Design the sequence.
């Protein structure tokens, strides 16, 4: 197990305590132990369920546990972008809990909804030759949807969160969301 992985039970306990504090929901309970997911260039990702959710069903969520120390504004930035994209109909997970300025075991984190389906890696590993065409179509469709994203809605969301829209990661997003040249 990599050095940066924490004991999953300890991580689950810390997550439960912090989400209770963040939401004011004393009855909030994480069902079982968080389950490690693949992926995450500079984050560790875990699936987990919340029992005692306001809905009748469990909330199926994902923890993005950043490898950088607490105090980072990445959770605020990424959750703002994801929520704006989700509101505009993009197939991205909503980040339902505000974890701005919070930390788990000394590291920044965010929580987002678990999206149904398989990861691109899982699709390709299941049948590399048969799924390659489907994967390329999925990537193309996703890229086209990103180019359809309304930068105005994203700008309003970032401004409401007091995020500087001139920072380099915003410039990259705004460039990607502009329509492609030569398309109607």
Sequence:
């Amino acid at each position: 197990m990599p050095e940066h992985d924490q004991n999953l039970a300890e991580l689950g306990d810390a997550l439960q305590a912090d989400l209770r504090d963040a939401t004011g929901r004393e009855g909030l309970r994480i069902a079982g132990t968080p389950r490690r997911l693949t992926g995450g260039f500079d984050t560790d990702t875990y699936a987990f369920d919340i029992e005692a959710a306001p809905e009748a069903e469990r909330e199926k969520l994902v923890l993005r546990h950043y490898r950088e120390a607490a105090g980072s504004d990445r959770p605020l930035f990424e959750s703002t972008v994801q929520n704006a994209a989700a509101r505009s109909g993009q197939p991205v997970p909503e980040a339902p809990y505000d974890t701005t300025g919070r930390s788990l075991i000394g590291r920044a984190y965010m929580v987002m909804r678990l999206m149904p389906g398989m990861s691109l890696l899982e699709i390709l590993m299941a049948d590399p030759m048969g799924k390659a065409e489907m994967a390329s179509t999925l990537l193309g469709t996703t890229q086209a949807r990103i180019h359809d994203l309304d930068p105005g809605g994203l700008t309003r969301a970032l401004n409401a969160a007091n995020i500087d829209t001139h920072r380099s990661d915003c410039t990259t997003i705004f460039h990607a969301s502009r329509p492609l040249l030569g398309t109607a």
Q: What stands out?
A: Residues 128-147 form the longest helix (20 residues). Helices lie at 8-23, 74-87, 120-126, 128-147, 151-160, 168-177.
